[in-house]
Design goal:
- The protein has 154 residues and is of the alpha+beta class.
- It has a domain at 20-60 and 89-143: Helix Hairpins, CATH 1.10.287.370.
- It has helices at 20-60, 104-153; strands at residues 69-73, 79-83, 89-95, 98-103.
- It has a two-stranded antiparallel ribbon. It has a two-stranded antiparallel ribbon with strand order 3-4.
- α1 packs antiparallel against α2.
- Keywords: Chaperone, Coiled coil.
């Protein structure tokens, strides 16, 4: 004996069959989704730029600067003076407050992997955004058509 399914099958509704107030609600929901998706896209782009900056920072560690006083970036706008003791290794942030030591080449490879991972997500997100924009365009056409029909009746 099999257990009854707890999820009801989803029904598809033709948007052109909806009344104007329902269409307006669907439009509002679609606008919220698009807003969230574009915000996520922007955040991923920022993360990608941060990782590119990390690559540049790792590449700037040079042997000729060993034991010289340099400016060490603590944030994107705060630098403190420090001496470079180890020109072969860097400490990288691997997330959630964890840092590991890697060679410069390993650090660059690590961040390149992060950038590529984000690029894959950005591509998928871009595709989703484009589909939602197409849906919005279609929905606006249906709303416009319904308004036109409504105005012609009166």
């Amino acid at each position: 004996m099999s257990a009854p399914s707890t999820t009801a099958p989803t029904q598809q509704v033709n948007v052109s069959d909806l009344e104007l107030p329902q269409l307006v609600e669907v439009k509002r929901q679609l606008e919220e989704e698009l807003s969230h998706l574009t915000s996520s896209f922007a955040q991923l782009k920022q993360a990608q730029a941060k990782f590119r900056s990390c690559i540049e920072s790792a590449k700037e560690v040079k042997r000729e600067n060993k034991d010289k006083t340099i400016l060490v970036p603590l944030t994107s706008s705060l630098y403190v003076p420090g001496k470079l003791r180890d020109a072969e290794n860097v400490i990288i942030d691997v997330g959630t407050g964890y840092y590991v030591q890697k060679t410069r080449a390993q650090a660059v490879k690590y961040y390149e992997g992060k950038i590529e991972y984000i690029k894959t997500n950005l591509d998928a997100l871009q595709e989703t955004i484009e589909k939602k924009q197409d849906n919005m365009s279609y929905l606006l056409n249906v709303i416009q058509s319904k308004l036109h029909q409504s105005n012609n009746k009166h």
